[in-house]
Amino acid sequence: MTTRPVGLTRDLPAARVMRARVDGTEIAVWRGSDGRIAAWNNRCPHRGMALSHGFVRGNTLACLYHGWHFDGTGRCRQIPAHPDLEPPETIHAQPYGVVETGGVIWVALEGGAMGADTGLDPLRSFMVGAGEAAVMAAFAATPCNGTAPEGLKNGQVQIDGDRVAVLCNPVGPAQTQVTVLAGQGAGVARRKALSRWCEAARRAAEAEGGS
């Protein structure tokens, strides 16, 4: 199963949870107070409430509905309605492979997640209302400060000699999460120019009808 980029490390600080989508599956990604990250199916095993609506307490994620607490492995550790009960091991959230590489959070539904270390720095991660093919075509054709990207290969292009990576996570027939990485040490002006390029490419992809 493919490992997908679902967001940037900097966008998920300690004690926070976010929603993601991988290969048609809703995911809850969260970070405990100790900085460790976990990715689970976004449904509480009790009543099916979205765990991404929950809250982090220490190194557990609590479901918003009945407050069941799950540790980093996904095992239920506390049921508030029965404080003296030791929850059985069978009460367990469905975990997925997750890894952080190069400032990007990667999730795989089967096996361990394998992040791609591009040697680049995170620029931004955003949604585009278009399919992956339209997105990549738009990034390949959209100029940055009047210069056309060159050599699109494996999601990477050259712009004025700078290497830029465009990572796609298809989250629907006409919706793609795009994560863009830029050269290490790029200055503020360069990063702003690349951000404007991202917006221009997004508009171009969506103008094609999201197909």
What does this structure look like?
- Helix 1 (132-141) packs across helix 2.
- A hairpin with a 2-residue loop joins strand 9 and strand 10 (104-108).
- It is elongated and about 65 Å long.
- With 211 residues, it is mainly beta.
- 14% of the residues lie in helices and 39% in strands.
- The two termini are 24 Å apart.
In short:
The protein is mainly beta and 211 residues long. Helix content is 14%, strand content 39%. The strands form 3 sheets. The protein has a 6-stranded antiparallel beta sheet with strand order 1-10-9-4-3-2, with no helix packed on it. A 5-stranded antiparallel beta sheet has the order 11-15-14-13-12. A 4-stranded antiparallel beta sheet has the order 5-6-7-8, with no helix packed on it.
Give a short account of the largest sheet.
6 strands, antiparallel
Task: Determine the strand fraction and express it as a percent band.
Answer: 35-45%
Contiguous runs where pLDDT drops below 50 for at least 5 residues: none
| Fraction in helix | 10-25%
Order of helices and strands: EEEEEEEEEEEHEEEEH
Helix- and strand-based class? mainly beta
List keywords for this structure.
15 strands, mainly beta, 39% strand, 14% helix, five-stranded antiparallel sheet, 211 residues
Question: Helices and strands in order, then pairings?
Answer:
Blueprint: E1 4-8, E2 16-22, E3 25-31, E4 37-41, E5 55-57, E6 60-62, E7 69-70, E8 76-78, E9 95-101, E10 104-108, E11 121-128, H1 132-141, E12 150-153, E13 156-159, E14 162-172, E15 175-182, H2 188-207
Antiparallel strand pairs: 1-10, 2-3, 3-4, 4-9, 5-6, 6-7, 7-8, 9-10, 11-15, 12-13, 13-14, 14-15
Helix pairs in contact: 1-2
